[in-house]
């Protein structure tokens, strides 16, 4: 049963954050100029002094963890394609991320479906049309909070080939929702992925590590994201063990919880001076 009213299901206020991250990917050589928006440039200019302050006092900025999560997700998804034979990827809340564009260049055999709220999906659709991507790369409207109907996760997955191994990816999405709400979404994803010969889910997650040496700066960044997107940005789960247990209860198997620090050498990631703050989860059904 739904625990949300229809007003609470309109989370389009969050979409501004995609302009910010879209510009971060571009500024760090991960994207192309077409993915940049004026709002992204303005938001980045506004946050530059705050990022510099956080780097000085906490040894890492908001962008440090954005770049860590983005690169590690790319790596985990690439492994699914190369080693597990995944042929379909559905990136939900893709925003202005260039991941689909980059992965389709690397793996032309992939079907890549990007999904987001209707406004952002329309914007991304026009952008990809302008770039000229192929028919295997499409954009659809999806609201993760809809349990049924045209914009639900079930409807999105129903448009795919049920004979192909499939992965769902989310990035920068799950901490915009209270844990009981996003857990219902995860359970729907796990359920929907069971229709495929193999189903995987990859996401980032910012945990609530209260003993982190920079916890007061984490709380500051949490307030900043909440202010920027006019809502809450709750941290989820106090430990890697709790993350593993939660995802297992929600219907996933083989839950991996990755610390970006374990990829510092392999992926040439920007480093945080203290412990990292983001986790990458990869699981199967
Ligand atoms: C921080 S942005 C992340 C964008 C992209 N994944 C990235 O990392 O650059 C959050 C995204 O979530 C999308 N979003 C917000 N609420 C959503 C919902 N209920 N269903 C699907 N997407 C949603 C926003 O439109 C936005 O594109």
UniProtKB/TrEMBL annotation:
Keywords assigned by UniProt, alphabetized: Methyltransferase, Transferase
Gene Ontology BP annotations: methylation
GO molecular function terms attached to this record: methyltransferase activity
InterPro entries documented for this protein: Ppm1/Ppm2/Tcmp, SAM-dependent_MTases_sf
Top-rank lineage group of the source organism: Bacteria
Protein name: Class I SAM-dependent methyltransferase
Species annotation: Thalassolituus marinus
């Amino acid at each position: 049963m739904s625990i949300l009213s229809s007003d609470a299901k309109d989370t389009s206020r969050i979409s501004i954050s995609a302009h910010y991250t879209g510009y971060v990917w571009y500024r760090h050589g991960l994207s192309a100029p077409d993915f940049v928006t004026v709002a992204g440039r303005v938001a980045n200019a506004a946050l530059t002094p705050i990022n510099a302050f956080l780097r000085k006092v906490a040894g890492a900025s908001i962008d440090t963890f954005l770049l860590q999560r983005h690169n590690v997700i790319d790596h985990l998804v690439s492994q699914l394609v190369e080693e597990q034979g995944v042929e379909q990827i559905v990136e939900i809340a893709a925003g202005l991320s260039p991941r689909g564009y980059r992965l389709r260049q690397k793996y032309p055999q992939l079907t890549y479906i990007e999904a987001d709220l209707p406004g952002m999906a329309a914007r991304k659709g026009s952008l990809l049309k302008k770039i000229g991507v192929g028919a295997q790369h499409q954009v659809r409207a999806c609201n993760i909070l809809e349990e049924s109907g045209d914009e639900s996760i079930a409807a999105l997955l129903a448009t795919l080939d049920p004979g192909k191994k499939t992965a769902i990816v989310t990035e920068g999405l799950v901490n915009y929702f209270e844990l009981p709400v996003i857990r219902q979404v995860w359970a729907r994803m796990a359920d929907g992925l069971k229709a495929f010969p193999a189903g995987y889910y990859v996401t980032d997650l910012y945990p609530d590590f209260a003993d982190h040496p920079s916890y007061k700066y984490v709380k500051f960044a949490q307030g900043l994201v909440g202010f920027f997107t006019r809502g809450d940005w709750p941290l989820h789960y106090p430990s890697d063990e709790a993350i593993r247990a939660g995802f297992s209860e929600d219907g996933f198997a083989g839950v991996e919880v990755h610390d970006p620090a374990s990829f510092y050498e392999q992926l040439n990631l920007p480093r945080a001076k203290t412990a990292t703050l983001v986790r990458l989860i990869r699981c199967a059904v």
